[in-house]
Design a protein that fits this description.
CATH class of the largest domain in chain A: Alpha Beta
Structural class of chain A: alpha+beta
CATH architecture of the largest domain in chain A: 3-Layer(aba) Sandwich
Largest sheet of chain B: 2 strands, antiparallel
Structural class of chain B: alpha+beta
Distance between the termini of chain A: 27 Å
Order of helices and strands of chain B: EEHE
Largest interface: A-B, 66 and 42 residues
Oligomer: heterodimer
Strand order of the largest sheet of chain A: 1-2
Number of helices of chain B: 1
CATH topology of the largest domain in chain A: Glutaredoxin
Strand content of chain B: 25-35%
Order of helices and strands of chain A: HHEHEHEEEEEHEHH
Helix content of chain A: 40-55%
Number of domains of chain A: 2
Number of strands of chain B: 3
Number of strands of chain A: 8
Radius of gyration of chain B: 14 Å
Amino acid sequence: MAEIQKNYDTYAKFNTRVFALSMDSSRQSANLVRKLGLSFTLLCDDDKKVIDLFDLRNPLEHDGIAYPATFIISPAGNICYRSLDGTAKRVDLTDELAFLEQLQKDSGHVQPARPKKAWILPSPKDDWRISMNMISVGNFADWKNLFLLPINYLKILVSKIKSR
Amino acid sequence: MEKRLNKDIPDIGQDIPAFEVVTSDNKTFKLSEELRSGQNVKLMFYRGHW
């Protein structure tokens, strides 16, 4: 989210409006907008209609949250870019923005077969949730993420030392 | 992550049916209206407060 926010103007430059959707309520989403200072709109699909429309419901987590994914929809209404992501590995925004730049020059530009992915460091809170998913519902989809746990704590330690 | 159980995830070139949802500021978002502006729409699905 924060990285998208940093690139918000670049998306606008490439004729693209940004929206992020989850099953969170309006109140939860509004809190997130305030907390992260987001300029783009969050969409609230609390009845999961859109998540199901895109077949992105992950039934193993909390009765069905959305798998992380990104779609870019052209003004004609069809998908011109798609990335199906994970907790620890997401679409590389540099790759996505390069695609949008090319699309602006050539409306027939086609997405590379597999978009580039970038590793991200999930928060300790995410690690906790992933651990609980493994223990309570047997969902091991993001087990690789746990290897990043020590790096998370190291990162926090370094930032605390730096802030002193 | 490209390998997952869900089989009907829309792919490149596929049309997206019209939908509408509520926004974080309690307005109505209509995909068709957004697309009518002539801009691309980036739609990111995130896990939210799970």
